[in-house]
């Protein structure tokens, strides 16, 4: 079955890099790539006489700009989109980003979103741009892979998967992790902050469930003590030159609200490690 990969683009260099990364990551996979641009006029959402509704010619101008930009992107990608295993669809649409992505994910049966960590503004003082944060927090029907700027794809040597074993692991989120790991038989390094001996019975049960999800893959446990979550995960991935960090993005997960946490911000600023946020719509 073909994978359905959605790649939002704002026509920036960062977004282009995410497209190329996705093409190369799934080079050997049968995939349909949906390269998708959304555009919006901010005033069209305001009911305020001080900000009058945009005129039709403004909508038309924005649509023309988007279509012309999409045509340029098609030409730019023409030499890279020649993999017989890949089908590439280009489209653009007026509306708000999250609303349109949610509909796209449902309508197209999207398995994964791939996007840059920052967009056209490319503020290097922040790890993740507003759109990346919103997508990774708001889209719950599939995983989101965030690709840092200016990194090229190389074979993923290992996937770091930090967990506290305090929640169950849903099949929908685990199949995304297993799919990426299974492509090149990439080992998964399960990282826990604390002692194995201190696990509760519930944690042990959840750990066994995780093992069942990963039973066709290579994985190992790594127990880090006397270190904070942020420092532990970052130093672990940095010292091992890990190729990907994956985590389950849940409201009650031990990173808290993960994108307001310094961990992910630090990853974006100080690391070239892509981050896979796993979700399940039943959370």
Question: What is this structure, in a nutshell?
Answer:
The chain has 283 residues and is of the alpha/beta class. It has helices at residues 13-25, 56-77, 97-108, 130-138, 171-183, 201-213, 229-240, 262-270, and strands at 3-8, 31-39, 86-94, 112-116, 143-147, 159-162, 188-193, 219-224, 244-248, 275-278.
Could you give the topology of this structure?
Layout: E1 3-8, H1 13-25, E2 31-39, H2 56-77, E3 86-94, H3 97-108, E4 112-116, H4 130-138, E5 143-147, E6 159-162, H5 171-183, E7 188-193, H6 201-213, E8 219-224, H7 229-240, E9 244-248, H8 262-270, E10 275-278
Parallel strand pairs: 1-2, 1-4, 2-3, 4-5, 6-7, 6-9, 7-8, 9-10
Antiparallel strand pairs: 5-10
Order of helices and strands: EHEHEHEHEEHEHEHEHE
Total number of strands = 10
Q: Within the largest sheet, what's the order of strands?
A: 3-2-1-4-5-10-9-6-7-8
Oligomer: single chain
Quick check: average pLDDT? 84
Query: How many individual helices?
Result: 8
- State the helicity in percent bands: 25-40%
Shape: elongated
Which residue ranges are poorly predicted, with pLDDT under 50 across at least 5 consecutive positions? Answer: 252-259
Q: Which strand-content bin applies to the residues?
A: 15-25%
Question: What structural class results from the helix and strand content?
Answer: alpha/beta
- Rg computed from alpha carbons, rounded to a whole number of angstroms: 20 Å
